[in-house]
Amino acid sequence: MKKIRRTVGQTGEFNLIDRIRRILPVSGNRDLLVDIGDDTAVVQIDRRRALLLTCDIQVEGRHFLFDRTTPYRVGRRSMAVNLSDIASMGGKPTYALVSLGLPAELPVESFDRLFEGMRDEMAEHGAYVIGGNLARTKEELVVDVTLVGEIAASQVLTRHKSRPGDRIFVTGMLGASGAGMEALKAFGKKVPRKYAELVRRHVQPVPRVEMGQRVARAGIASGMIDLSDGVAGDLYHICEKSGVGAEIHAACLPLPERIGEIAEISGRSVLDLALHNGEDYELLFTVPPDVPERKIRALPGKTGIPVTEIGKIVGKRAGYCLVDARGRKTPLKPAGWDHFRKG
Amino acid sequence: MKKIRRTVGQTGEFNLIDRIRRILPVSGNRDLLVDIGDDTAVVQIDRRRALLLTCDIQVEGRHFLFDRTTPYRVGRRSMAVNLSDIASMGGKPTYALVSLGLPAELPVESFDRLFEGMRDEMAEHGAYVIGGNLARTKEELVVDVTLVGEIAASQVLTRHKSRPGDRIFVTGMLGASGAGMEALKAFGKKVPRKYAELVRRHVQPVPRVEMGQRVARAGIASGMIDLSDGVAGDLYHICEKSGVGAEIHAACLPLPERIGEIAEISGRSVLDLALHNGEDYELLFTVPPDVPERKIRALPGKTGIPVTEIGKIVGKRAGYCLVDARGRKTPLKPAGWDHFRKG
């Protein structure tokens, strides 16, 4: 009888992460505040400061296609997704290391544009690429970025402490990236100008670094996460770790202009775009009910980025659901993007 | 006329790094002590401490082949090469982030063994894997490790300050890894036991972390580097950055037992194995002539690792050469391993 060997392709990202957690020892080091399983590791430097460490590997054909994007944008995006992870901790990004797996056929100009994109994205946040490593791959471009950030030790946020009764807020608009993607699919290179902003949100996500720092400094959040996999998937991570449930109010979701038109064109519902489409890179955070309203109203400051209440944390037994305008509840599917399964 | 587009495959690693250096801005940050172009970036944390950051990307088919090694060993090696970079700065390794590009067909057991190897290699140095990221690739396994370390700010070593007259030392034996590789090529799985130690040095390099710290604490080195590309190539990096030349004395090179036999079997010269074969992961460092001899003799301590003087730094005009037993000089080819060109 042939022994069937299970492959990583059959296993899925979250199971693989569980396996890693079982294999790796828990560090006994007291300076390690957050480790495996969170997007960003936190190491205490001294009484006042903590170091943030995060990495994200992007593979051609999986995370980007050169017939739909440019090397410059891949460079910007590779930094943006990491900046977003630092933002979700309320941190200040400082330095990045870049490892590249390069197919021999990549034009040198593409190589240059890639680094120009990284440089420009980092510059917007006063951060720098300070090192890296190059290797050859057969055919796929692989871009792995490790980003370092800093935060006041007293402001370290994890996603473990959301409690029933906490209010749920998001920054910006939900579903813009998904709508932009659908616009590109429908119109190709001839996207009508009225959808340009949606497309821009898809091809060039804006990490909410300043807003993350504002939330952390305000000291009002019991948990925070960046929306890379869609509200439904990312909020579920917070709920799982805190052992709680959540209710999202459909009528409260902040929606970008013209998302309704794109929903019609693409045949997807507005709710699907807003809840299940990843890559908005907005921040979602929970706030205990006793936090004064003025502190929340003060969050946008001069950023121009809206902060919207979209629901509340409930007990685990109350479940994980969407509430419609008439108060009817339907279970919310936590389906996000498994970066690993066949896609 | 067709415009010919130059590819990265035609460009070579060092030219690509030059391009990166031209594109990226120099950080004005005063805390950044060493950046792009060195294997390890150094960021000052406070008056007493500095952070070390290094990364190394290894690609299946290029850095390792599963018909010649095991996933466990790939895991150990992926950490070892980074630990060696931290060692070359005299630092103490603390934490690693691991990004993996995984082909779907990789057996889950291989995935587990990979992490067990990483864990065991890190454990030998009191360091931990604390985060990472997974992605799918088409066919190659890609392992990118970012390693963080720490060092006293007063002990930060760069490779820029070697001066004519400085003495050149290496730890351990040279050419062991190359000889082990040739033994494997010649004998396959039936390598005679007498060559087992050479093979071990090839398949499981030992980063000289403790020795690196001993050199840094002694405060005697004007420059240090780890031997990943061979003495001839790596010493050349030190010389280029310091604007100096060097003389290596062939008769002084510390050679492992039985390297002569392997040279004969493989048809390569002993000198070629010792000077041009990378992956010994020993340390090479330069010491100003006025450093007391007893400080150098004290370096091995209880480590059991020999420290051998192999030559001296000379003026740039005096060149870069090998001196034979009769005092005759021949130019030393700085050829190392370009990780990028077709190999």
Briefly, what is this?
With 343 residues, chain A is an alpha+beta fold. Chain A contains ten helices and 13 strands.
What are the main properties of this structure?
homodimer, globular, 7-stranded mixed beta sheet, Phosphoribosyl-aminoimidazole Synthetase, Chain A, domain 2, 10 helices
Description:
Two copies of one chain form a homodimer. Chain A is an alpha+beta fold and 343 residues long. The first copy, chain A, has two domains: 8-155, 60s Ribosomal Protein L30, Chain: A (2-Layer Sandwich), CATH 3.30.1330; 167-331, PurM-like C-terminal domain (Phosphoribosyl-aminoimidazole Synthetase, Chain A, domain 2), CATH 3.90.650.10. In chain A, 31% of the residues lie in helices and 25% in strands. Chain A has helices at residues 13-23, 71-87, 108-123, 176-187, 196-203, 209-218, 231-242, 259-266, 270-276, 293-297, and strands spanning 32-34, 41-44, 49-59, 92-103, 128-137, 142-152, 167-171, 223-226, 245-249, 283-287, 307-314, 320-323, 329-331. A seven-stranded mixed β-sheet of chain A has the order 8-10-7-11-9-12-13, with helices on both faces. In chain A, strands 1-2-3-6-4-5 form a six-stranded mixed β-sheet, covered by helices on one side. In chain A, helix 2 (71-87) runs parallel beside helix 3 and helix 4 (176-187) packs across helix 5. Chain A is globular. The two termini of chain A are 32 Å apart. At the A-B interface, helix 1, strand 3, strand 4, helix 3 and strand 5 of A face helix 1, strand 2, strand 3, strand 4 and helix 3 of B.
